[in-house]
Write a structure and sequence with these properties.
The protein starts with a strand and ends in a 5-residue tail after the last helix. Helix 1 crosses helix 9, helix 4 runs parallel beside helix 6 and helix 4 crosses helix 9. The chain has nine helices and 13 strands. By secondary structure, the chain is of the alpha/beta class.
Length: 340
């Protein structure tokens, strides 16, 4: 099999480092790997494989010639600036930012859900990785939509601080310490204190009152699953380091039978159903950290509406919500003979 030369934009961040780790874990056929970041990170050495270290290079001015595949995870503004440069040199880009997700000709991919959208993908193009919260939700809901026909989704997310980057995780850590030192907690990354608190606000507010994060879940779910599905989202930042939780309520076209739902989810690719009606018989965000699957718990028929179902869904937002999904997209390209 051909060795694939790779560049990782945002290689010093949480997602970039996780991509590097997953490439080794999954025995991806990588050739040369270039780690790219801003000037302040140039010269850093990142542990890679078999005690080897790769030195970080400056993204500014990097020549992408000879790079087959680029993973971009350094923010939308960075992607908009540098992805065209990579495309110009013939690279394929899997972009983990919001920069290109809603563009008509850019596939928005969760491999377990809509890999068929890669069918007509052409070289010298972009594939977008969805928002982390969208990924775990559509992974759990796709098999149910196929069987039952989802009409409406109401979701409340409980998103960990790692979704806002390492500095956000640091803020939670230091604020937690400061509580016990009786120090004042001054927010820097977040709009209010995050330690021992919940913040119903992720990203900027839009004109109608929703935030960009909430609108992403609406728009991306429609693009990936079905444009006819109605979606209402409330996104909340919680004092957790890794792992997102979601309370999801769906309304379906067909009658819901819980035994059938369990059967569907048990056989679904990338989904683990752990739903015991006993103390601890569910999965929490902390328990999802470092794992690949999307976990579904707390299944309940919602009798307040016709054909309603409630569930609790958790996943590692850095892994399946970003890095793993990106690598799985690359693997799907290989399966389809793109690098043959």
């Amino acid at each position: 099999m051909k060795k694939i030369n790779i560049a990782i934009i945002g290689s010093t961040g949480n997602v970039g480092r996780e991509i590097l780790k997953i490439l080794v874990e999954r025995k991806f056929p990588f050739g040369k790997i270039e780690l790219l970041a801003s000037e302040k990170s140039v010269g850093k050495k990142i542990n890679f494989h078999k005690k080897k270290f790769i030195e970080v290079k400056n993204l500014e001015g990097f020549n992408f010639k000879g790079v087959d595949l680029v993973f971009s995870s350094a923010g939308a503004s960075v992607s908009k600036n540098f992805v065209p440069m990579a495309l110009d040199k013939g690279s394929v880009v899997i972009d983990n930012t919001s920069a290109f997700r809603l563009e008509k000709n850019v596939p928005l991919i969760v491999p377990e859900v809509n890999s068929v959208a890669l069918k007509n993908f052409k070289k010298n193009g972009i594939i977008a990785n969805p928002n982390c919260s969208t990924i775990q939700m559509v992974t759990a809901l796709k098999p149910l939509h196929d069987e039952l026909g989802i009409k409406r989704i109401v979701v409340s997310t409980y998103q960990s601080t790692s979704g806002a980057g390492k500095s956000a995780m640091d803020e939670l850590f230091h604020q937690t310490l400061d509580v016990y030192k009786n120090k004042s907690l001054i927010p820097n990354i977040f709009t209010k204190k995050i330690a021992f608190n919940l913040i119903p606000h992720i990203d900027d507010f839009l004109d109608e009152g929703q935030t960009k994060e909430e609108q992403k879940m609406v728009d991306e779910t429609k693009k990936i699953l079905d444009k006819k599905i109605s979606v209402f989202a409330t996104c909340v930042r919680v004092p957790v380091f890794v792992g997102h939780g979601e309370s999801i309520n769906i309304e379906t076209k067909k009658v819901i039978k819980l035994d059938k739902v369990r059967e569907i989810l048990t056989s679904a690719n990338g989904v683990s159903l752990i739903d015991k009606r006993e103390n601890g018989g569910y999965v929490t965000p902390d328990e999802s950290a470092g794992l690949d699957d999307v976990f579904v718990s707390r299944l309940r028929v919602d009798k307040s509406i016709k054909n309603g179902l409630g569930m609790w869904v958790v996943s590692d937002n850095i892994r399946k919500g970003a890095a793993l999904n990106s690598v799985q997209i690359a693997e799907e390209l290989i399966k389809r003979g793109f690098y043959g």
